[in-house]
Design the sequence.
């Protein structure tokens, strides 16, 4: 004998994480800090892909060559989370996130956030300036000299999305 019993089944989807990351342009020497919210105490997986990468609607369905980096973090007891992404090469990107809860259920990807990594203008410009100083000093002094350079960043010296360093240059005739 077989008895059939019908049991109503309700699948509870989990909410995709929210990315609190505006579209920005960064110098490649600066880290990208991505913040957001998700269900409390859940695992957040961030995937950075090249601009134009096609998401097929499934988790992990980007072409491997489009994925630049993947990083995980965990939301806290209030649902807030943060991740720091470093060493991303020059280019245009999008960052996506999805959530996994303690049951193993996985959300859909979040709405992506776009960002651009520029070449390192600041440090390349500093190198160019120091080269000009050294050339001028060599011509003027007619001999050897010691150049001491100290670079520092002044808190609050942000212009646009760039942090501008300050230089102290000391010249010692040998």
Sequence:
């Amino acid at each position: 004998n077989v008895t059939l019993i019908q049991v109503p089944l309700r699948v509870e989807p989990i909410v995709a994480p929210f990315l609190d990351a505006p579209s920005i342009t960064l110098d490649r020497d600066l880290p990208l800090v991505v913040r957001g919210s998700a269900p409390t105490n859940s695992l957040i997986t961030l995937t950075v892909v090249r601009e134009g990468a096609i998401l097929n609607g499934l988790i992990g369905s980007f072409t491997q060559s489009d994925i630049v980096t993947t990083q995980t973090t965990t939301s806290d007891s209030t649902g807030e989370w943060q991740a720091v992404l470093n060493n991303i090469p020059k280019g245009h990107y999008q960052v996506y996130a999805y959530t996994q809860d303690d049951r193993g259920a996985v959300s859909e990807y979040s709405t992506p956030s776009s960002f651009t990594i520029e070449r390192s203008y600041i440090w390349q410009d500093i190198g160019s300036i120091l080269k000009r100083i050294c050339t001028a000093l060599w011509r003027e002094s007619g001999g050897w000299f010691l150049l001491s350079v100290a670079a520092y960043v002044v808190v609050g010296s942000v212009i646009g999305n760039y942090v501008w360093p300050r230089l102290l240059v000391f010249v010692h005739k040998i």
Remarks:
- Strands lie at 18-19, 24-27, 32-37, 43-50, 67-74, 80-85, 91-100, 113-118, 145-159, 162-173.
- DSSP finds one helix and ten strands in the chain.
- Residues 121-141 form the longest helix (21 residues).
- The CA atoms of residues 91 and 151 lie 27 Å apart.
